[in-house]
Amino acid sequence: MRDLLAAFARAFDLLASGDPALYTIMARTLVVSGAATLLALLAGVPIGYLLARRRFAGHTLLLGLVNTGMGLPPVVVGLFVWLVLARSGPLGDLDLIYTRRAMVLAQFIIALPLVVGFTVTSLRALPERLPDLLRTLGARRWRMLWLLAREARLGLLAAVMAGFGAVVSEVGASMTVGGNLERSTRVLTTAIVTETGRGDVPLALALGLILLVLAFAVNLVLTWAQTRGSR
Amino acid sequence: MLATTTSTRDSGLLDTLVPLFRRQTGIDVKVIAVGTGAARAMAARGDADAVLVHAWESEKRYVASGDVRDGRLVMHNDFLLVGPPADPARVRGTRDVVAAMRAIARTGPFISRGDGSGTEQMERALWRLAGIDPTRVPGRDATGQGMGATLLVADQRRAYTLTDRATYLAFRERIRLVPVLEHDPHLLNVYHAYVVNPAKHRRAKATLARAWVSFLVAPATQDVIGAFGRARYGQALFVPDAGKTEAQLGLK
């Protein structure tokens, strides 16, 4: 119990003191997970649109894969990306292992099925004939995609939140492909593992609280966008 | 519940000793492998019953504070500096680890454990002896992870790192790092076993812990420790030391 209170106090002190090491890790966490979520959104929404609106060979198979992928164990994704990017792996010459880019790639793979899955669900919730209606009103392809996205924004923002929430809180893939390097690839979750390993439980817990605050702040902005848009 | 350093687990020694102990006594050992720093912290919180660690200087403080007691010298192995085959700091073939640290400090890169482990403490002691501020070593970074993970990172980064022999031998097949300096007396890694003091931590199971520590220093167990690794690596990973004194190993 004392540790728990100490953790709250420590989290507050750390944030208030403006500890540069902490703020670097927080910023890095936001950038890596933000980039991964953004890329997953750029790739995932069009895929989700196709899956929701079109029928094609392998449609059910792909949808099944997406649904399975929504529960992809991050550490397995990490191992896979590690094997591909390691010096001995097929993409070893790119020298990407233990870099932030490698982390973005792994987190992108984790977030993608979530974004696709949520996109499919939210687009399917729209009236079946809406695209036809928009087309008769003269909307072209990109314009129509944009209008549909606006109509489905509640679900799409949920897709962003689910994707970001998954990657910002995962530790297995970031640890495996990022290496938790103090100066370049340590993020909040891997820092928590390190501090737990060092035996500094209050600091580990404080970092956990800060991670929660960070995730909460991001979600608050998204929720605000969600409710403001639906008025 | 035994709090121990990652090196004893990663090398596989405990996978041999724990079942042996169970067969002899019927007592099961739950092994929590962490850095020496965390092992000590677990002892200081009474979260473990026994500890097996290798950071002599800081161990003395925990004995003094009364968190652990009945320390027994169990065994030692040694650290070695490993690095990329290209050896940019030209350390290979030299014998003086302090000079080697100075050479590496000029070229880098160096990957540190950075996890408060006994290995990291050894590394810091070596930088101190060399009169070098480790934060200024070019390309020095820390993984905050165990020895195995750190070896993999150093290998991929073509960096130097300090490793215990047992973990290095266990990973030798998987990495291209080669030993660049070994057998310097500064690189000795001495393991002590302790019982968490039941007078200070009521939940600590001292009777079980004492049985475990006695088992570790028993002649039959010491023979097993001395033979461990010969069949697989062609050399023993640990030297049994029960009954010896710290001074005989050059510890102060």
Protein architecture, described:
- The complex is a heterodimer of chains A (231) and B (252).
- By secondary structure, chain A is an all-alpha fold.
- Helix content of chain A is 78%, strand content 0%.
- Chain A has one domain: Orthogonal Bundle (MetI-like fold), CATH 1.10.3720.
- Chain A contains 11 helices and no strands.
- The longest helix of chain A has 34 residues, at 20-53.
- The model of chain A has no long low-confidence stretch (mean pLDDT 89).
- Chain B is an alpha/beta fold and 252 residues long.
- Chain B has 2 domains: 2-76 and 189-249, D-Maltodextrin-Binding Protein, domain 2; 78-186, 3-Layer(aba) Sandwich (D-Maltodextrin-Binding Protein, domain 2), CATH 3.40.190.
- Chain B has 11 helices and 10 strands.
- In chain B, α6 links the parallel β5 and β6 (140-142).
- Classes of the chains: A mainly alpha (231), B alpha/beta (252).
- The A-B interface holds A 86-87, 97-98, 175, 179-184, 186, 190-191, 193-194, 196-201 and B 34-35, 37-42, 114-116, 141-146, 149, 153, 155-157.
